[in-house]
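TASK: fixed-backbone design
INPUT:
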């Protein structure tokens, strides 16, 4: 079994959206933060369990009344006690890992997703109990003692390492949080994107709308080329929209799409074999769910934003498809990846128009 994959099933799109609403952040930001926070917490727990006293402390925490079923988070987020649960979860992580480690993880997540300290602290308080609850299930099912728990976590090192987003892992390099696992050798995302650079061409002159829309489209495509080739993270996406308002209500569709593509690039970059392909499925499914949400919003974009947004999507497809093809070929995991890839590419094609 894969503890990272199993735990992530409790943090799907519905939970991410409810957490985003509670924290007052964008849905795509919450999804991105969760995808980084969960495996990072698990990695830190591997390190904690590497000593006898640490494993015992972890087992005691897992068996405490404060750790419930990870499947209960969705219902908790619907109720009035969600903030209290987040506070309790944050305290549990601090007790296990120390305030400095939790603070370092929170700070790294803030930089990674563009969220504030209060939001990332609360998110860790929600995700931490899911990680502990998932381990609790294994402890109960397998009858593990402290040594058994340590052995189980040791056997999950590779699964956990492959679940940590490749563009987030370097941000934890000096924190010691990943010391308990061995991160796989992965090429930098900028180099990977550059190796599959699409041939850029100017957008076709629209039949109506005047020169300004054409100029905006050109700015968007050139900006997106820079975005994908340099591997910049989602927040910079707002700098290449040519000043076009891509908001629907309180959701910036351009930002949400940028975050989804950032996660997709990072995930695809970590696929090297069948095991890593299998481990990547939860994140790919999360991106696919985001594309469903974006598809629902794209039709509501202001008229002036539709052509530029379609240009963004087209450029993303031209860059992402070769990366995916290369990952499938290198890993030999087409049977695992092709269904979710086909679903995502079909949605991207629909968004591109």
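OUTPUT:
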């Amino acid at each position: 079994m894969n503890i990272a994959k199993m735990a992530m099933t409790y943090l799907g799109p519905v939970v991410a959206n409810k957490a985003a609403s509670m924290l007052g952040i964008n849905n795509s930001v919450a999804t991105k933060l969760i995808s980084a926070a969960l495996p990072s917490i698990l990695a830190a727990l591997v390190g904690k369990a590497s000593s006898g006293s640490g494993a015992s402390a972890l087992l005691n925490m897992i068996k405490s009344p404060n750790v419930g079923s990870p499947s209960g988070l969705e219902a908790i987020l619907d109720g009035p006690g969600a903030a209290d649960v987040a506070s309790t979860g944050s305290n549990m992580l601090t007790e296990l890992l120390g305030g400095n480690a939790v603070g370092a993880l929170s700070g790294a997540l803030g930089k990674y997703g563009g969220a504030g300290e209060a939001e990332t602290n609360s998110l860790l308080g929600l995700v931490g109990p899911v990680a502990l609850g998932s381990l609790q299930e294994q402890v109960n099912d397998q009858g593990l003692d402290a040594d058994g728990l340590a052995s189980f976590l040791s056997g999950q090192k590779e699964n956990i390492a492959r679940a940590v987003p490749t563009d987030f892992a370097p941000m934890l390099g000096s924190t010691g949080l990943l010391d308990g696992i061995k991160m796989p050798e992965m090429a930098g995302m900028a180099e990977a994107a550059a190796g599959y650079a699409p041939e850029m061409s100017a957008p076709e002159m629209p039949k109506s709308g005047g020169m300004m829309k054409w100029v905006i489209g050109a700015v968007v495509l050139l900006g997106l080329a820079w975005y994908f080739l340099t591997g910049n993270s989602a927040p910079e996406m707002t700098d290449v929209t040519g000043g076009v308002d891509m908001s629907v209500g309180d959701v910036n569709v351009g930002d949400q799409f940028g975050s989804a593509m950032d996660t997709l690039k990072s995930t695809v970059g970590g696929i090297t074999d069948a095991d890593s392909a299998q481990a990547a499925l939860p994140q790919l499914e999360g991106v696919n769910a985001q594309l469903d949400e974006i598809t629902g919003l794209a039709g509501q974009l202001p008229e002036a934003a539709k052509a530029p947004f379609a240009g963004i999507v087209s450029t993303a497809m031209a860059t992402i498809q070769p990366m995916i093809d290369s990952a499938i070929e290198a890993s030999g995991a087409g049977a695992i990846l092709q269904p979710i890839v086909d679903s995502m590419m079909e949605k991207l094609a629909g968004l591109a128009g």
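COMMENT: Residues 167 and 240 are 21 Å apart (CA to CA).
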